[in-house]
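STRUCTURE:
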């Protein structure tokens, strides 16, 4: 049978990819590199579909191999582009949708066609958490990164009483939690009752969307399958998974229908009054410290301090789970300005999330502090000495004694009763695992200075190369 028509398109996309590769070899800025990688990923995927069509005609193994190689290159380009996004080399808030825009391509390669994870690229996600399946971790991590930003958008929309966006983003969030739940059940052998948290959160956000929809004249974007108005194809993958369960039209359903279907799939999620909180041992330690230190929670100043503590706990957990978030870049830090830039990025996102003003390098009490949220100073320090201090409790005490006066000076200058000391532990002993890495919940503390009546939150980020679980695995292999 004649394949000349297919051959024409194969040549067309191969030439297009060659042109894009030439352009990317000359690019000098991250934003253009990001855009070109996305175009390359899309072109490779289309090319793979052309090889698939030709193989259906020719039945040749070579066409199948060409198809898989094109899908593989599409996957590599996607992950490379996302690594740029995660490093905050470009605007994360305006480009966050890319975390899931191509998730259908990745699902097609990794699951539908059982593609291998290329060893020549360094994936930005942590493959050791949270599930015992590397493919699942790639997909779930991409979804979670997008959810992180969607959460900011929901909070901002609620603050502005923008019910249109509360409705839209809440339904998207519900979709994404359900998507994660379905992927978990699809890819690992689990006791479903053990992993129902995502189903609970899915219902929670569907219900939030439903409550806000009535305030915008029953705007039913969902019934057209266009909740995500930028056409992100996570819905296509959800369609495939739910089709196997007998609910192929779920993604095009109105909210009431989605909730009814949820009730059939997960009957224990409906009408649930409480939902599992995002908690960790680090947060439990924080709340214990807040209680033990008698930290008040009356005025806005108190609430900002507690919110910042919770945010920093999230950062600690993420730094442990995802080496590209903190541990990898911190290996090369030799000047505090490098840490300042990292902290500034996170605190700017905190500002978007909470609407509490972030500003840099404000003078206070005769000194200059690098970071502020409203009137609360956050002093960050890059620590490479104290090589003989192995115990984390002793390390925190030593660093606190050295810098406490500085933090108090800043807080007192703004008449604040709170301050923070954020430490990046980049000692060679930590990097080379000569000192045992401490769990996240032991890397936090809250001190109270009775003379000035100031509480100081301390958070230590350890720049180890690998978490203990990875080291144990490497030792086992040896």
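SEQUENCE:
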């Amino acid at each position: 049978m004649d394949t000349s028509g297919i051959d024409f398109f194969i040549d067309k996309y191969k030439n297009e990819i060659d042109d894009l590769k030439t352009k990317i070899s000359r690019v000098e800025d991250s934003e253009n590199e990001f855009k070109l990688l996305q175009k390359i990923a899309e072109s490779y995927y289309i090319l793979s579909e052309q090889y698939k069509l030709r193989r259906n005609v020719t039945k040749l193994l070579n066409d199948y191999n060409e198809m898989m190689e094109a899908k593989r290159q599409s996957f590599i380009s996607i992950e490379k582009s996302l690594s740029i996004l995660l490093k905050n080399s470009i605007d994360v808030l305006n480009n966050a949708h890319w975390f899931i825009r191509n998730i259908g391509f990745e699902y097609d390669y990794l699951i539908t066609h059982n593609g291998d994870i290329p060893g020549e690229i360094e994936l930005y996600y942590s493959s050791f958490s949270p599930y015992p399946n590397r493919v699942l971790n790639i997909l779930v991590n991409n979804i979670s990164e997008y959810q992180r930003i969607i959460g900011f958008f929901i909070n901002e929309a609620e603050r502005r009483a923008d019910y249109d966006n509360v409705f839209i983003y809440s339904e998207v969030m519900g979709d994404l939690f359900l998507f994660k739940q379905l992927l978990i059940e699809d890819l690992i052998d689990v006791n479903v009752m053990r992993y129902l948290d995502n189903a609970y959160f899915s219902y929670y956000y569907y219900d939030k969307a439903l409550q806000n929809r009535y305030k915008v004249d029953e705007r039913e974007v969902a019934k057209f399958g266009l909740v995500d108005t930028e056409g992100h194809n996570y819905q296509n993958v959800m369609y495939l998974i739910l089709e196997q369960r007998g609910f192929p039209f779920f993604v095009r359903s109105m909210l009431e229908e989605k909730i009814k279907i949820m009730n059939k799939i997960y009957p224990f999620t409906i009408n649930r009054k409480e939902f599992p909180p995002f908690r960790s041992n680090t947060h439990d330690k924080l709340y214990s410290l807040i209680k033990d230190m008698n930290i008040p929670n009356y005025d806005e100043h108190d609430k900002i301090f507690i919110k910042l503590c919770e945010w920093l706990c999230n950062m600690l957990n993420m730094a442990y789970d995802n080496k590209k978030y903190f541990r990898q870049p911190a290996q090369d830090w030799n000047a505090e300005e490098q840490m300042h830039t990292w902290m500034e990025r996170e605190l700017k996102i905190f500002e978007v999330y909470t609407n509490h003003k972030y500003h840099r390098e404000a003078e206070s009490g005769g000194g200059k502090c690098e970071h502020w949220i409203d009137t609360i100073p956050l002093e960050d320090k890059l620590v490479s000495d104290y090589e003989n201090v192995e115990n984390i409790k002793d390390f925190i005490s030593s660093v606190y004694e050295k810098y406490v006066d500085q933090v108090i000076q800043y807080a007192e200058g703004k008449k604040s009763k709170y301050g923070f000391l954020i430490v990046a532990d980049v000692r060679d002993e930590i990097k080379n695992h000569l000192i045992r890495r401490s769990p996240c919940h032991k890397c936090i503390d809250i001190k109270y200075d009775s003379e000035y009546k100031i509480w100081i939150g301390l958070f230590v980020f350890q720049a180890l190369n690998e978490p203990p679980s990875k080291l144990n695995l490497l030792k086992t292999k040896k």
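REMARK: Residues 1-124 form one domain.
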